[in-house]
Write a structure and sequence with these properties.
Order of helices and strands of chain A: HEEEEE
Largest sheet of chain A: 5 strands, antiparallel
Number of helices of chain A: 1
CATH topology of chain A: SH3 type barrels
Number of strands of chain A: 5
Shape of chain A: globular
Helix content of chain A: under 10%
Number of domains of chain A: 1
CATH architecture of chain A: Roll
Strand order of the largest sheet of chain A: 4-3-2-1-5
Oligomer: homoheptamer
């Protein structure tokens, strides 16, 4: 049987989209994650209804995350 | 005796509806889940009172979930 | 000495009412529960001040629950 | 040395008042409790600024509770 | 080296003030506490900006507490 | 390698400033702390946008804290 | 395989930006961190939409953090 975090394993090195509880979205190349869904992204940007900000490398703390999805 | 998460076990490969604390609903094909109710869905869409968004593959972090129900 | 979750044990197979932190109420036939008060209901409906929705089978994540009561 | 939950032990079989984070108060006969302060009450009623509701038997999830006090 | 909860140990049998996240203050004679800062008070009163209420004996769940201070 | 709580170890006996999630600031002489960042202060005062209050000895529950800084 | 907190390991001694759930941003030289993402910064400043404040040395409690990024 598969585990839900396997979906992240198959996205390593690829671009993902993270939807945060704050309403922001962060996209970037997935470099690493752990069981808390703490996520390290490279080439990341954040976006809310008002503006887009270039973040570069970023560590997102897992407890802020609603969902994670491979970028299409 | 059965355990409450067995309801998810019998929904694997089938479409479910997830109601989130944020008010959003996410539907998709259940691929995997764990004891935190972290959920991996395929062919997923999210919907709130304003709009519907195609998500495709998605990992929903369990602590955002109010309830999960098989799609009828 | 009894434990508080015994009240759920004696309600298995019977209709219960769950009051959620969101203000919603969910009623259904109790099929299973665990120590986090994750609850599996059959023949469930949700109700808030505006509308009533038929849910059928549903898994409610325990951390959303204020209280659980046998339906009278 | 005594422990704070001993105050509940000496209230078993007696009427207590529970103040919830939601602003509601629930009163009832204390039947059982555990270390999370999950509480089982019989002959319970809930009350907020607008209305009073007869609950009968109820299990209150501990994380909703601000304080518990013997009814005077 | 001392530990922060020692400040409570030296207040047993004395009046303390508890500031809650809800904005309320509760004062009373400290009878017992545990590592979660669950607190049992006797001769307690609660007070917010609008009113003061006599509580008598009370168990305050630790996760509601901002700070505890000996009454001066 | 150093650990982040070492910053508190080197502040024992000295005045620190604690910024709370509620918006309040508390200053006082650091007497003790633990791994949850529960903090015991002496000669403490609290301050928000409206008023300053003398607290004297106080135990601050760690989960309320945004950051701690040595007073400059 | 790398772990997400490795991104902090490679930033020790360098300036980072921390985005908090409160909306504030804190920047400073990373001195130490732990598995909860508690972070010790030197030469730190905090900034919100209204003002910038010099903090100097500061310990940020991890549960307030949305993300951490190396300053560019």
């Amino acid at each position: 049987m598969q585990r839900p975090l396997d979906v992240l394993g198959s996205s390593e090195g690829k671009r993902i989209i993270i939807k945060l509880k704050s309403g922001e979205e962060i996209t970037g190349i997935l470099k690493a994650f752990d069981s808390h869904i703490n996520v390290w992204l490279d080439e990341a940007d954040s976006k809310d209804s008002e503006k887009e900000v270039k973040l570069g490398r970023v560590l997102v703390r897992g407890d802020n995350i609603i969902f994670v999805s491979p970028a299409q």
